[in-house]
Amino acid sequence: MIRLLAGWQNGDGTMKETTFEERLGYMVYTEQFAGNLEGVREHLEYLRELGVNYLHLMPLLESPEGKSDGGYAVSDFWKVEPALGTMEDLGNLSDACHRKGICVCLDFVMNHTSDEHEWARRAKNGEKEFQDRYFFYDNWDIPNAMDTIPAFM
Question: What does each C-alpha distance from 55 to 5, 38, 51, 103, 136 come to in angstroms?
Answer without folding.
Answer: 12, 14, 11, 6, 35
